[in-house]
Each structure stands twice: as C-alpha cells, then as structure tokens.
Amino acid sequence: MILRLILCIFLFSFLSHCTKTSQSYEACERADLDYLVCSLVVYQSYAFCAETAANVTGSTEVKAAAKFRCDAERLVGTYLCDDIKKKKCGTK
Length: 92
Fold this sequence. Notes:
Helix content: over 70%
C-alpha cells in the first residue's frame, strides 16, 4: 500500500515537470521513466541490503558499519538517479 502511494507520488511529480510544448518533451518523458526505474532498483537494493544488515552478528560497530554501508549505497544510488534524469532531460 505504501509502495503504491510512493510510486504514484513519484510518477505524478516527475511527469508533471515535462510539458508537451517543450522541444525535449520525449527526452524528458523518457528520463522520467528511467528515473522511476532507477529509483525502484535503488529501493529494492536498499531493502535487500537492510535485511542482510539486520542479520549481521557481531559487535555494535560491525552492525553499525553494515547499516551505514546500506545507507551510503542508497544515497549514492539516489544521486545517480537524479544525475541521470538531469542529464537526459536537460534540467541542471
């Protein structure tokens, strides 16, 4: 349920940035779809990483490092998705 709501919000907010009067409408529309796919991959990767990190045994530092790695991967993935969209859509 929450995932559907998030997907709807992403789809609405990012597709609304492109207008049909723009010369790069098709490129921007494609960039929106690529961004959505990229975001879903980042989310799935983070969910898997977080599940794996939750099962890590060891000291508090080891557990924190596993969680930090997941957060760092998600952050880098999110910036990558944003950068790809900006480059393809022409919005910098």
